[in-house]
Amino acid sequence: FNWYNNISVIFTDVESFSTTHFFGGYNPLYFNTIPYLGAKPYEFSLSNAYTTRLDAQWQFLNKTYLITSINYAEAELPFKYIPNQDFPNKLGNLHRRFSFGLGLAYNSPLGPISFSVARDINKSQFTTNFSLGFWYK
Fold first, then answer.
1. Which of 11, 18, 26, 95 has a CA positioned 20 to 30 A from the CA of residue 109?
2. Residue 61 exposure: Cα atoms within 13 Å on the Cβ side
3. Which residues of the chain carry a pLDDT beneath 50?
4. Cβ atoms 99, 120 nearer than 8 A
5. Distance between CA atoms of 120 and 132, rounded to whole angstroms?
6. For residue 45, how many other CB atoms are within 10 A of its CB?
7. How far is 17 from 27, CA to CA, in rounded Å?
């Protein structure tokens, strides 16, 4: 099991690029981006949010893994009590989001190869991700 948590809090009344975080995708590239399965990369932008994700991984063949994931994002509580927050703080048109995903990974000589699919419960479409090799930030 892997458990990931992220909290982003900005204490200002000025909305700018440096006070905005971008949520979405599997492997965001920039310092102010946070992964959220079931959303396109950088789909949501806001200042304050909490995300948590739990992954469970099972090895069912030699070097082959099945990975299940659940992801939750919260943009309202307790952030609405922060003073001087006059700009909207929503994930799309919602204050909270929940998603789930399923992935298949293989440890090859070139590095890990993985394919994943995920869905936000408030959307009808699935997002996919293919990865080859190690991820560097």
1. 26
2. 7
3. none
4. yes
5. 24
6. 16
7. 20
Give how far Cα 70 sits from Cα of 20, 40, 51, 78, 137, Å.
24, 16, 11, 22, 23
pLDDT at position 65: 97
Q: What share of the chain is helix, strand, coil (3-state, %, to 5)?
A: 5, 55, 45
Residue 36 near residue 97 (C-beta atoms within 8 A): yes
Please give the model's pTM, rounded to 2 decimal places: 0.81
pLDDT tens string 61-91? 999 999 999 999 998 887 777 666 655 667 7
In the structure encoding, which two tokens stand for residue 115, read together? 């394919």
Strand partners, 137: none
